[in-house]
Amino acid sequence: MDKIINIGYGNLINSEKVIAIVKPDAAPIKRVVSAAKDDGSYIDATCGKKCRSVIFTTDSRIVLAALTPDTIANRINGEVSGKSLIIK
Fold this sequence. Notes:
Elements: E1 4-8, E2 11-14, E3 18-22, H1 27-39, E4 42-45, E5 53-57, E6 62-65, H2 69-76, E7 79-80, E8 83-84
Parallel strand pairs: 4-6
Antiparallel strand pairs: 1-2, 3-5, 5-6, 7-8
C-alpha cells in the first residue's frame, strides 16, 4: 500500500516513488533543477519559501520542498523528533 507523507505546507507525496532526497546547495543539483524547470518536469512545493530539499522520484520528476531532507526522511520512516509514529 502506498504511504503518503506531508512534505510541508499541505503538500503530499507518495513515499514509494521517492528515489533520493538531497540538499539543493551543490552545483550539480542546481543544474539538474534548472534543467527540470526548463523542460517542465519539476514540481515546486515550497509555497514561496526557501527550497531546502530536492526530491527525485521514480517517474523522473523533481519535487522542491521547504523541509530539510532529514525531516522528510524521518516522516518516511515514521518518526517525529526521534520517536516512532508506529504503534506496536
